[in-house]
Amino acid sequence: MMALLFLGWFAAFVLAWTGRRIGSVIVALVSLLLCMAMLRYHMSEDIGISL
C-alpha cells in the first residue's frame, strides 16, 4: 500500500515535470484519497485493538 502511494506521488511529480498539469493533479488527488483511506483504516484498526 505504501509502495502504491509512493508511486502515485512520484507519477504526479513526473507528470508535473513534463508539463502535463491536469494529469498530475488527477494522480495527486487519487494518491491523496489513497492516503486518507489508508489513514482511516489504520486508525479504525488501532481503535479496535485498544477496545
Describe this structure in words.
The chain is elongated. The protein has one domain (2-50). The protein has helices at 2-17, 21-50. Helices cover 90% and strands 0% of the residues. The chain is mainly alpha-helical. Helix 1 runs antiparallel to helix 2. Pfam families: DUF5993. InterPro entries: DUF5993. Keywords: Membrane, Transmembrane, Transmembrane helix. The chain crosses the membrane at residues 26-43.
Structural class: mainly alpha
Helix content range of the residues, please? over 70%
Span between termini: 25 Å
Number of helices: 2
Determine the mean pLDDT.
78
Rounded to an integer, what's the Rg over CA atoms? Answer: 14 Å
Quickly count the domains.
1
Largest sheet features: none
SSE pattern, N- to C-terminal: HH
Number of strand segments? 0
The low-confidence parts are: none
Percent of sequence in beta strands: under 5%
Transmembrane segments: 26-43
Keywords: Membrane, Transmembrane, Transmembrane helix
InterPro entries: DUF5993
Pfam families: DUF5993
